[in-house]
Specification:
alpha+beta, globular, homodimer, Dna Ligase, domain 1, D-amino Acid Aminotransferase, Chain A, domain 1, 4-stranded parallel beta sheet, Rossmann fold, about 35% helix
Chain lengths: ~375, ~375
């Protein structure tokens, strides 16, 4: 019988699971938030992922449930597990991706290197942390943030006063790390425990959104690569992650690496692997959550580059963009998400590979520029 | 607006267009022969491709019509063109893939090297051809053959008597070429005329069915490669092919190459390119029929190998096959068509790449063996 994988959420991450699912012969079904979502082609149901009965009905049509995002409530996840549904990653792991305070506590317990942090329940505690850390800090809402939302650099506790009023819960405050660059480490882990690691990559963020990725991270020596992989494996195992794990890292001027954020799903920092690795992260995620043996994560070229397409043209102009990008860059791999363009919104990306990093960067940027 | 590509026929070739269509942001819709076909995920209609009104209704929902097979009748194709539908490849080109006698006549007119052939309308004419060619010949029904069906090696005209009785039409008879091996040349061509060529590959047939492909053809020097590419380009242009063209070739002991068969769609001999070329043949076919600029056909590795999975396990055992194949060969790219297994039926294939041909062949064969 064909293995049926159910994906909750109809965004581009679910969409990009369709290609490898079809090629592997898996039956992929998506619970989409609405009609016309990015993963529409595989949508077998439309409904609210916060509603247990909606999710339960969807889960009953598949063999394993996984996710396009980390927003399905714990109550829903735990009810599914109680029903006997295979949920990957499971609620015990997902809580660490859903709540950044819980994540920081767990990483501290594991002894993983991370920025100084504290849970602060009022302005006085926040101000004290700021004062202790050179007059500035990063405040984060523990839940619901993404792509720079729910994150603020503050110099004064007043700048987070609205968040204290809104939630009443504690906020996470972290030291503002003086980093030389940002890295990301991808790990895949099966329920049975098998793990594979992708090479550590460099990510470039603009306005809190991932803009470019270079794989492997240029200049990353044996020591840095092993440190990143080791942190990734420790987190995947320590948190019981199943599927893909992305660990976002700061590399500091003094050559330390500190954990910034976690994602338990295919992640923007791993899109390069679709065209740049023997096994792309979307195929790997499917293998991992379906508890199939993991694929080879080895890069297929010396260098892979990913450049996001943000915003994008008005509807109707995509054909012109295609024409120019494809004519000038026949070797660029263009991935389009089928989403309406809004300024700054991720609507696609371009992957390139090659033995010269500068060439690969040039081609990816030039091709992506045609869509901007 | 999203470009909508309609594929007539729901087999594995249509299925394998789904992945690149989704990644390119194209809207792919399939007119399937029945429910549960290989390309089910993209099926937007089910119906008989020989029925004009069925095909016409389907065509009205897309921007361009292409094919999983070459069996749509000329009357239907020509009516679509008269309706103003973009049909690629069009009826003028497809007639040469639909009727082997028409193809032989056209190739003769173009001066393309091919085996000796004749149209024979009765046993006496067939026997005369056999007698003139060393006492044996290949008889083919001009229409409807595939995977070795409709092809017979005969030593006596009586062996084709049933075909004369059945059809009343002329049969195609060809000299039995003493070939050293079989090759295939893939060309992509846009309506605007742009063409790109893949490297010539070696194909190994068993019982008339493609079993293995080595890309590029081992030992193929500059001369052979250029000859094959030149024949491919001449046919694509001379026959007005749009989309992918596969030219099956015999290489003779005296280093000639002769055209055996043509296919105007992605072809089994090009499956290696999914994982082995910068632009796979399914993406290339979509680009070509949508009149988008063609992608780079350059190989991504020194060697690529494709091994078909024929027959396959009883339903229910696929998971065990996966487990063994993936555990032992994490670098093998496994493609499964979602079709019920029958002895000898193509149900999937395995692609491998590498800098050592023997290793790539070993891995592809070993992985495929787990499914047989």
């Amino acid at each position: 019988m064909t293995l049926r994988v159910g994906v909750i959420g109809g965004g581009q991450l679910a969409r990009m699971m369709i290609a490898p699912a079809v090629e592997l012969g898996l039956d992929i079904r998506v619970l989409a938030e609405a009609e016309g979502m990015s993963a529409q082609l595989a949508a077998s149901a439309v409904g609210d992922y916060r509603d247990l009965e909606t999710v339960r009905a969807f889960a009953s049509t598949v063999d394993v449930v996984t996710f396009d995002h980390e927003h399905v409530p714990q109550t829903v996840l735990r009810a599914l597990v109680d029903d006997g549904v295979a949920v990957h990653p499971g609620p015990d792991a997902l809580q660490f991706a859903q709540d950044k305070l819980v994540m920081r506590e767990k990483l501290a317990e594991l002894g993983v290197p991370q920025p100084d942090w504290a849970a602060v329940s009022d302005s006085a505690a926040l101000q004290a942390f700021i004062d202790d850390h050179g007059g500035k800090a990063v405040v984060k809402t523990p839940r619901g943030g993404y792509d720079g939302k729910g994150v603020r650099v503050v110099r004064n506790a007043d700048e987070a006063a609205d968040w204290f009023l809104d939630s009443g819960d504690a906020l996470l405050v972290e030291e503002l790390v003086s980093f030389s660059r940002e890295l990301a480490q991808q790990i895949a882990r099966r329920p049975s425990g098998q793990m594979v690691a992708y090479p550590v990559v460099e990510t470039v963020q603009r306005d809190g959104v991932c803009a470019e990725v270079f794989a492997p991270a240029p200049g990353a020596g044996e020591r840095l690569s092993q440190m990143a992989e080791s942190i990734g494996r420790q987190i995947a195992e320590g948190l019981g992650v199943t599927g893909m794990l992305a660990v976002e890292l700061f590399e500091t001027d003094d050559e330390r690496i500190l954990v910034n954020e976690l994602a338990m799903r295919p992640h923007n920092s791993g899109h390069w692997s679709q065209d740049g690795a023997v096994t792309g992260q979307f195929e790997q995620h499917l293998r991992a959550v379906a508890d199939l043996p993991l694929g080879d994560p080895t890069p297929r070229a010396d260098w892979s580059v990913m450049v996001n397409i943000l915003g994008g043209p008005a509807q109707g102009a995509f054909e012109d963009c295609f024409d120019a990008a494809m004519t000038e860059h026949p070797d660029a791999k263009i991935h389009i998400y089928g989403k309406a363009a809004r300024p700054g919104r991720k609507v696609g990306h371009v992957n390139t590979t090659g033995d010269d990093l500068d060439d690969a960067v040039y081609t990816a940027r030039a091709a992506a520029t045609h869509f901007a």
